[in-house]
């Protein structure tokens, strides 16, 4: 599993009912269901991802996240997980509201735009950053709302949300010790666990 | 153990179940219908493909749509031009893989392809049932299908599968006999008809009933058939099965000849196509059956029996569901499937849903499509894996 998914795996409690937004091939939900008796659904828009989920026996619903979560009732899930999709949404702030309407807790991961390699790309070389976590060119990227650890924390403050946990992912590994102290500089992937106050 | 109908068919196309022969099951136990009437006895015609395993755990039920029947796959004779109506999806190596599954496909009660229906003999009156054949509902069909399952010694279906009206029967199975369905596949269906759907059905019924040859449904006794009515009904139906784009790309505004002839004969290709479809259907299908089938569609509304709450109606269901819709289906649009999916998630049921990109409208459920087939196969393979099914041939 991807490094950020391994961390999230540990954050999901035994027997939880979860919604996994942009669940991809369903790997996270499959291992959560198998080892932690977790139930719930993945939402996905990619046809191949959906077929892979079905093949694994993961419940998956074709759904465009930009349509919101109106079809899901208030407080109907324990957790809503969204990995690597926040930055591709039309309105990430509204999705955050929606996630915490549907569940008590949200887990969110996204590429940190302030990662030092990105800063070098833009600050020194003068190009839009391209990296493992941001693999697209500026003109064809689905990532239309890039942000940083600091940006996300500020949005949580404005919304009055509690940050329960914060972690850092770098590439395929978990964060180097430096990223723990200076996540906004050394963290490639931002990982947050948030709740309503 | 029932034998497979599949015979060796020397030059059968690969992936075909080959030559098949229908069977008839007779039922003497009276069947109480939703309308209050009782059918004292009846017959169901069905076909099977593949081999039932020793545990009888690999049976898949196919439920047919409005004008469908039991002949879903394979050929009745070496001279058949076309295979059964769902041959693209049933056969060795296909989505419903007959190397693993034992497929049962029947003609529903009230049908006109061999099961007891309006064209059958009414033992009480000594004449054809005709318009006196009771109106049957989706629940009635499911009850009769359960008796067919008993007859075949099938305790529980590995999967119940259906498109359109067939999908509604699958839904009803999961509500009425939840313990007898291990998996449910509901394709291009809806939990209830919209006012527009009912309106189209009513136009079709009026076309049939206002045909001077209809004789209040006793046309057989007048040695005639309400061909014009049936033709119109089919033409209207056919328009709703295709998408605007599909019709546009198939026919556009093409003319049959080079010039306009300023008359009312067939000029546009689309007119010719619709007339051909209508003509073919009007001699092959029974008008009273058509009326019954459209009524079964109109009446289906499981939520109405659960305070209008579809999630509550589906509460008894126990099995995983696969729900599939098609982007250009405007007869039962993706939003209707999504309604069903949302009710299932609210009820906490195992469900997966895909909305397949297709230009073919409602008819897409009958046609091959790489994504549709990959998804359908993935679900059926998982079903086989979970039930521990091995290849039976």
TrEMBL record, chain A:
Pfam families: MetW (PF07021). Signal peptide: none annotated. It comes from the Bacteria. NCBIfam families: metW. This is Methionine biosynthesis protein MetW. It comes from Vreelandella populi. The lineage of its organism: Bacteria, Pseudomonadati, Pseudomonadota, Gammaproteobacteria, Oceanospirillales.
TrEMBL record, chain B:
The active site is at residues 164, 329, 362. Pathway: Amino-acid biosynthesis; L-methionine biosynthesis via de novo pathway; O-succinyl-L-homoserine from L-homoserine: step 1/1. It catalyses: L-homoserine + succinyl-CoA = O-succinyl-L-homoserine + CoA. Substrate binds at residues 234, 363. Transmembrane segments: none annotated. It holds the Pfam family Abhydrolase_1. Its EC number is 2.3.1.46. Keywords: Acyltransferase, Amino-acid biosynthesis, Cytoplasm, Methionine biosynthesis, Transferase. GO terms for cellular component: cytoplasm. Residues 58-366 form the AB hydrolase-1 domain. It is found in: Cytoplasm. It comes from the Bacteria. Homodimer. This is Homoserine O-succinyltransferase. It comes from Vreelandella nanhaiensis.
């Amino acid at each position: 599993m991807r490094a950020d998914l391994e961390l999230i795996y540990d954050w999901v409690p035994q027997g939880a009912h979860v919604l996994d937004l942009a669940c991809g091939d369903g790997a996270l939900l499959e291992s959560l269901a198998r080892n932690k008796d977790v139930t719930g659904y993945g939402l996905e828009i990619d046809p191949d991802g959906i077929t892979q989920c079905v093949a694994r026996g993961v419940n998956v619903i074709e759904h465009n996240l930009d349509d919101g979560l109106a079809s899901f009732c208030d407080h109907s899930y324990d957790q809503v997980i969204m990995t690597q999709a926040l930055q591709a949404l039309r309105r990430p702030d509204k999705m955050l509201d929606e996630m915490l309407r549907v569940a008590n807790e949200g887990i969110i991961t996204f590429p940190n735009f302030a990662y030092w390699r990105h800063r070098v790309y833009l600050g020194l070389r003068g190009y839009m950053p391209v990296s493992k976590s941001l693999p697209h060119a500026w003109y064809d990227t689905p990532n239309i709302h890039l942000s940083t650890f600091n940006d996300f924390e500020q949005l949580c403050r404005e919304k009055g949300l509690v940050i329960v946990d914060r972690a850092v992912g770098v590439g395929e590994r978990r964060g180097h010790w430096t990223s723990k102290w200076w996540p906004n500089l050394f963290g490639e992937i931002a990982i947050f666990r948030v709740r309503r106050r | 153990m029932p034998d497979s109908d599949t015979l060796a068919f020397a030059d059968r196309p690969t992936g075909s179940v080959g030559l098949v022969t229908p069977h008839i099951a007779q039922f003497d136990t009276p069947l109480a219908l939703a309308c209050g009437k009782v059918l004292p006895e009846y017959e169901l015609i069905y076909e099977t493909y593949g081999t039932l395993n020793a545990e009888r755990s690999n049976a898949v039920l196919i439920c047919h749509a409005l004008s469908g029947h039991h002949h879903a796959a394979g050929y009745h004779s070496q001279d058949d031009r076309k295979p059964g109506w769902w041959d693209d999806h049933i056969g060795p190596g296909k989505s419903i893989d007959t190397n693993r599954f034992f497929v049962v496909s029947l003609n529903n009660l009230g049908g006109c392809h061999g099961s007891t229906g309006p064209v059958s003999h009414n033992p009480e009156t000594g004449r054809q049932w005709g318009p006196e054949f009771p109106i049957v509902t989706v629940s009635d069909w499911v009850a009769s299908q359960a008796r067919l399952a008993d007859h075949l010694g099938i305790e529980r279906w590995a999967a119940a599968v259906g498109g359109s009206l067939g999908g509604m029967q699958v839904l009803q199975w999961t509500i009425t006999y939840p313990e007898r369905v291990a998996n449910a596949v509901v394709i291009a269906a809806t939990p209830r008809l919209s006012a527009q759907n009912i309106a189209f059905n009513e136009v079709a019924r009026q076309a049939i009933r206002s045909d001077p040859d209809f004789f209040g449904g006793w046309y057989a006794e007048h040695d005639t058939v309400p061909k014009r009515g049936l033709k119109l009904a089919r033409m209207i139906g056919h328009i709703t099965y295709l998408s605007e784009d599909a019709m546009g790309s198939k026919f556009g505004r093409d003319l049959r000849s080079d010039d306009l002839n300023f008359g009312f004969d067939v000029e546009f290709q689309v007119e010719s196509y619709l007339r051909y479809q209508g003509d073919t259907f009007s001699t092959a299908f029974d008008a009273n059956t058509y009326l019954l089938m459209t009524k079964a569609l109109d009446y289906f509304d499981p939520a109405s029996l659960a305070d209008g709450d579809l999630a509550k109606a589906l509460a008894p269901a126990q099995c995983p569901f696969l729900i599939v819709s098609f982007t250009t289906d405007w007869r039962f649009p993706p939003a209707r499937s999504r309604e069903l999916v949302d009710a299932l998630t609210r009820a906490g049921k195992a469900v997966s849903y895909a909305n397949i990109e297709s230009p073919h409208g409602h008819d897409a459920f009958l046609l091959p499509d790489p994504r549709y087939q990959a998804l359908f196969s993935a679900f059926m393979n998982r079903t086989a894996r979970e039930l521990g099914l091995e290849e039976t041939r």
